[in-house]
Each structure stands twice: as C-alpha cells, then as structure tokens.
Specification:
mainly alpha; Rossmann fold; 5-stranded parallel sheet; two-stranded antiparallel ribbon; 28 helices; 6% strand
Length: 736
C-alpha cells in the first residue's frame, strides 16, 4: 500500500480493513517490528488505539498460567500491548519503552526446583501524542527526529536493550510521516509496515497531561453483529416466523441482568457501596497534597501503569461535568495506591487497593455507565489485584467478575467486531473460577458461575459451532441447576430453568428438534411454576411467550393442530401481562407471534372452512395490533421483523378473499385486497437492500393485482395499478 493514499469514498470500509490488518500484524507474535499508523483524525486515532488495547493488552492466558505438569501457577497480569503517551519534554520513545520495562520487567513463569522458568514475552508498545509536537518549539521537534535517527543502534547491536524483542507502533499524523521519511531515513528504512487511516484532519489541542476521549460515535464503524439469530422461515417462505423473542435481554439471571441501559449484578461478595465510597484519612491527605482534582498530578504517577492511569483520567474528565464526587473517588484511590507503592506495603494490601478501584468501576458499570474506558479500568484493576495476591479468598469472585466484564465488552458498542474474542475470554475466566470453587462448600457461587458460563456459550454460538456451543450451554445450565434448587432461591432457579429452555430451543434448530423442543417446553414450564403472575407479571408473560414459540415450532414436526392451539392459548395468556401500557414492544412481539400461529392453524388441511375464516380474521387482528404498536415505537428496537409482519398481514387479507368459503360482497373483497396490496407495498419499500426478500414481496404484489382482476374485473385491476408507484409499473405490467 502506498503511504500517499488519498481519502477514500467509503472511509468506514477502508478503515475497517486497515484496522484488521494492523491488529493482525500486532497479533502474530513477530519480533522487532516497527509499524507506523498514519491518522489525521485524532478522535478516530483514539478509538482505534483504545480498541487495540482492549483487544490485545490483557489476554486471558497471561493471567493464570498453566504449567506443563498440570499444576497451576499464578502470574502477574502482564500486558501484551502497552500504550504510552510521548513525553514532550524529552520525546524519546525508545527511552520511554526501556523505562517501562525497567519498572515492569516480564515475570518469570513455570519456575520450579528443577526448572528456572521462562520470562513472559516483552509486550508491544503503541506510542500516541506525536501530533502535540506541532505546538512545541522547533528544538523539541528536531530532538524527536534526532532520537529516531539514533534508534538505528538499537537494531544494529545485540546488547542494546530489551526493545530488540519488542514491537513498536507509532501513531503519527500525515505531516510527520513526511518529516520522518526525510529527516530520519534510517528509522524509515527499518519500518515493517505503514497503515494509513482515512479521515479529516483534527486540529492538535494543547496537551493537558491527559488523553483525549477514547470514543466518539461515528468515528469508526468496525461492524455489527446480528441482533437476533432467530429469523427462521415458516411454511416455505410464505410467512416468516415472529419467534424472535429468544434473546437473553429479557432473562433474569445471566452474567449481568440487563434492563435497558441498567445493569444489576447478583450475589456480590464485595465491600458495600457505602464502605467503598468512604475516603480514609490517608486518602484525604493524599488528595489535599495533590491539589484536589488536579489531573496533572495523576499523569506523573511513577508506580502505577500508565495505561491504567490514562484510562482513569479519561473517566475523571467525563465525570467532572456530572458529579464532582464521582471524579474524586477514583483519583483518591489511585493516589492511595501510589502512596502504598512508595511505602512498599505488603502485596496483600496493594491487592486490596486495586480490588477497591476495580469494584468502584464495576459499581459504575452496574449503574449503566458501561463505557469502554470504565470496563477497561475495571478489568486492569482486577487483574492487578490478582497479580499482587494470587491466594486471595476473593479470587473466584474476581475471576467471575472478569468474565462478566469481558462479556460486557462484547455487548458494549462498538465492540461487536471483536465479539468472539471477548466471549472466549469470558469463558476462560469463568472456567478458571470454576476450578477454584468446590460446589459442595460454595454451591451458590458455583451455580452462579455455571449459569454465567452457559450464557457466554450461548453468545459464542452466534459466531461459531452453534450446535456444539448450545450443547455446552445446556451442560453448564444443567450443572448450575444441580446446585441451585427451588428451595434455595426460587426466582434464580426459575431464571436458570428459563435459560436452559432457551438453550434447548436453539439446539433444536440444529438437531433432534422434537426431543430438544420438548425439553425446552419442560424447562419453561418448570420455570413458570415459580413465577407468581401477580408479583412477577413481566417475567411470567415472557416465559408464557417462550412456551408458545416452542409449541409453535414443535407443531412443524408433530401434532400440528394440538401444538398450535397450545401456542395460541399461552400467547393469549402472555398478553394479559404483556400489555401495551406496560411493555409495548414485548406486547407487539407476542401479538405478532399470535398472528403467525393463527395463520398456520388456518392453513392446516383438517381445518374446516368456517374455522379457517375465523382463524384468518383473528390472524389479521393480531398482526394489526402488532404493527400498530410497532409503528408507535419507532425509536425502540423490535425483536421481530416488522417488514415481514407487513407481508404476513397482506397475505392474510389476500387469502381471506380468495378462499372459496368467503362470502363477502365486491366492496368487502376490494377492501381486503386494497389492504393486502398496501401492506405488501409498505414491505417492498423497506427491502431495497435485501434483493432476495424484495423479489418474494414483489411476487406478492403481482399476485394481489391478479386477484383484483379475478375478483373485480378490469376496474379492480385499474384500481390496484393506481396504487402502485410509477417506477414499478413497467415491470409489473410485463408480468400480468
């Protein structure tokens, strides 16, 4: 790739490609690479740099090391990627790297009486802040280029420094790329790769000792995952099922309970919020000595890793505008940790301080502030706590929390592109926690982690090996239920049964559908026993909806009439609690499901003519209610395909008219056909980016216009054509 590439028409696509190539280069484990990342948009640079850090800095395998003899040896949480801001007073990135390695040498792992062990690999380093040199004196700018020229000795001698084993990623704006090529040719010749991101230049701001925000909406779109994996066809693509409720956001007990943007974690073994937020006299003294909330004092900490410090500063800068107390708490804890390092206190005391910092940010996350920075501070702080106290009795809980935090990274935009990596890391942490818990002595904690593990496997099934991962989820939920009984906690027991039912439902989409769907229904019914509809109306209604969908699905394999009737009955029961006033989006989803069940029941061969007409009318009413609610919730994410619902409603009106038992007059026939055509056209209008579904819907439009002619003659056909957009007429006329 030429380093002179100009801006690209589709910056998002280009930047995604460059990002993945850069991440791959850093992930390969090669040594002595010099990578130059060119980016003029500082917001984009910060987002990509933070993304690389959150993905590569703290892989799970480096938290607890498994030795070859099978014995577990804990090691410090040592990063694979370190982020450093260029020191503008002495802009020598290689000295900064060596200083970091002096302060944080790679730990030795696998040591024993007969084995000296081996050091961890030296991490890669990404340097940011070069753009601030533009506002520095010319002498400082020349000094930076001079240091780069001198760097040739680091690559030509064998005993120079540990940097020989490391990788360097230098973030620079485009003007500095030209300056390096001209004024530091030796450094330029040593480069391994140049990665140019497209974006508008951002004016460099004065360096205040803290980084710019690591995220900005719209800066870089690294892709999204599908919101639901339940979008199956029903009856040879004539109708698409509305059974898209089987997502975990409605469940009551997975790693963190998500309701909207709030997160409620269960069963914590941590200091209370009140205890956590009390500032000790030592903390107060540190704060006063540092000049209150002066961020500059944090930027000069010498014992705490710079990546943790800068992430905390970034969170403080956003907290100041909302709540001064929120900004002081992490600063106080960070200054206390620095003071504890200076006093060389025991590792257990240091671990507790890092744990308190992680818990503070975990509480913020539970309150809805699940930003990338907050998640990363909590992760790094907890990993630091592990590194200083490997025998802490809280270690299983910390590992469980780390698993949940990585799971939340997957659920926090814009991290969906790295979803599989984050979920796999979460699974490893949950599995590590389970190795340290005796289910006989800590049954509650063991069951919680197994439940979390099941949910993580369910999310992993979105990305790879769905059948195998849903089977793993079932094993985890079943294991949790071995130690989480209804007598211990009926609501948590019911929630885990609901999760188990969902896992069986998904597994039934891949193999042995009858067996697994029946097990899903059994698990849902077991969960339902423990939900009082008066006390838990929304959860009761949710599980009734899930039972209905499983029965609807089972009807495709056996006893269709009986299973569809059961589905209709439980959907109707769910709608007593999923009302438009309480939960309009969930009510719309269940109404949509109800319409689909009625449609299938109407089309069974054994259904009588009179019953068919009645079922189609009920189908139409349910779809109309679903669409009306959905249209009133334009800003709310729906769990079903609204365009499919428009098509389904059109098909129901169409079938009602062409059925031989229909005895309505011409005006009534015309009315139903007009509604059918309007709904198909409404669906067609939103399907321009789905060519296959667009063609299916277009065929519905043509078929409906033909029905106008068959039922109402040429006048009916002309009426239908008058409703069709002019750009569609030539193609439609050619098919009539």
């Amino acid at each position: 790739m030429s380093v002179n590439d100009t801006a690209h028409k589709n910056n998002s696509t280009w930047n995604r490609q460059v990002y993945h190539r850069l991440k791959l280069a850093l992930s390969l484990g090669l040594r002595r690479q010099i990578l130059l990342a060119v980016c003029d948009d500082l917001y984009l640079r910060n987002q990509v740099a933070a993304r690389l850090h959150s993905t590569l800095a703290y892989p799970v395998g480096q938290v607890l090391y498994q030795s070859s003899n099978g014995q577990e040896n804990s090691t410090p949480a040592y990063p694979r990627l370190v982020t450093l801001r260029l020191n503008l007073n002495d802009p020598n990135p290689l000295i900064q790297i060596n200083q970091w390695l002096t302060n944080y040498p790679p730990p030795i792992v696998g040591a024993s009486k007969d084995n000296p062990g081996r050091p961890f690999p030296v991490p890669a380093f990404q340097i940011v802040g070069v753009e601030h040199l533009t506002k520095q004196p010319v002498a400082i700018q020349r000094l930076f280029l001079h240091y780069l020229r001198l760097s040739e000795q680091y690559f030509s001698t064998q005993e120079s420094s540990r940097f020989l084993e490391s990788n360097l990623l230098l973030w620079i704006p485009r003007p500095w790329l030209s300056a390096i090529k001209q004024s530091a040719p030796q450094f330029w010749r040593c480069r391994t790769g140049v990665f140019v991101f497209a974006g508008e230049p951002t004016p460099a701001t004065q360096n205040l000792g803290y980084p710019e925000r690591f995220s900005r909406s719209g800066s870089l779109d690294l892709g999204n995952i599908e919101q639901s994996i339940l979008d199956e066809s029903a009856n040879q693509a004539e109708l698409r099922t509305a059974a898209t409720e089987f997502k975990f956001e409605n469940n009551s007990n997975f790693p963190v309970e998500v309701q909207g943007n709030r997160v409620h974690k269960t069963e914590e073994v941590s200091p209370s919020t009140t205890d956590l937020l009390k500032a000790t006299p030592q903390q107060q003294e540190s704060t006063n000595r540092s000049g209150g909330s002066n961020n500059q004092s944090l930027s000069s900490l010498s014992y705490i890793s710079s990546e943790l410090t800068e992430l905390v500063i970034a969170t403080i800068n956003t907290s100041i505008a909302r709540n001064t107390e929120d900004s002081l708490q992490p600063q106080q804890i960070l200054l206390e940790i620095e003071e504890l390092h200076e006093k060389q206190v025991s590792e257990e005391i240091l671990a507790e301080a890092y744990h308190r910092l992680g818990t503070l940010y975990r509480l913020r996350i539970e309150q809805g502030e699940s930003t990338l920075e907050n998640l990363m501070v909590a992760i790094i702080a907890y990993q630091e706590a592990i590194s200083y106290d490997e025998g802490s009795p809280q270690l299983p809980d910390i590992l469980n929390d780390l698993g949940t935090l990585y799971w939340m990274l997957y659920r926090t935009p814009p991290n969906s592109e790295e979803g599989q990596t984050y979920i796999e890391q979460a699974i490893e942490f949950y599995q590590l926690a389970l190795k340290m818990i005796s289910p006989q002595t800590h049954s509650e904690t063991y069951a919680r982690v197994q439940n979390n593990l099941g949910t993580a496997y369910g999310d992993l099934a979105r990305f790879s090996q769905p059948s195998e991962n849903w089977q793993y989820a079932i094993l985890a939920y079943s294991e949790a239920l071995s130690y989480r009984t209804a007598d211990m906690d009926s609501l948590k027991y019911a929630a885990c049964q609901n999760n188990l039912g969902t896992a069986y439902w998904h597994l039934g989409q891949y193999n042995q559908p009858i067996v697994h769907l029946k097990k899903a229904i059994a698990a849902y019914n077991e969960a339902l026993v423990h939900y009082n509809p008066e006390e838990e109306p929304l959860k009761y209604g949710m599980i009734q909806n899930n039972i209905g969908t499983a029965c609807w699905n089972l009807a495709q394999y056996e006893q269709p009439a009986q299973n569809l009737q059961v589905a209709i009955d439980v959907y109707s029961e769910a709608l007593k609690y999923r009302t438009p006033a309480n939960v309009p989006s969930a009510c719309a989803a269940t109404q949509n499901n109800l319409g689909t069940a009625y449609w299938h029941l109407a089309n069974l061969p054994e259904t009588t003519k009179e019953a068919r007409q009645n079922y189609l009318q009920l189908c139409i009413s349910a779809y109309e209610e679903a669409i009306a609610l959905a249209d009133s919730l334009s800003s709310t994410s729906l769990s079903f395909d609204l365009l499919a619902s428009y098509n389904n409603l059109g098909l129901a009106h169409y079938q009602l008219v062409i059925d031989k038992s229909f005895n309505g007059d011409k005006a009534t026939r015309s009315q139903h056909l007009e509604v059918a055509l309007d709904n198909h056209l409404q669906a067609l209008n939103g399907l321009s980016k789905q060519p296959e579904v667009y063609q299916t819907t277009f065929a519905y439009v043509v078929k409906t216009i033909r029905a106008f002619h068959n039922e109402l003659g040429i006048q009916g056909q002309n009426l239908a054509l008058s409703k069709v957009p002019s750009q569609l007429l030539p193609e439609i006329l050619s098919k009539l």
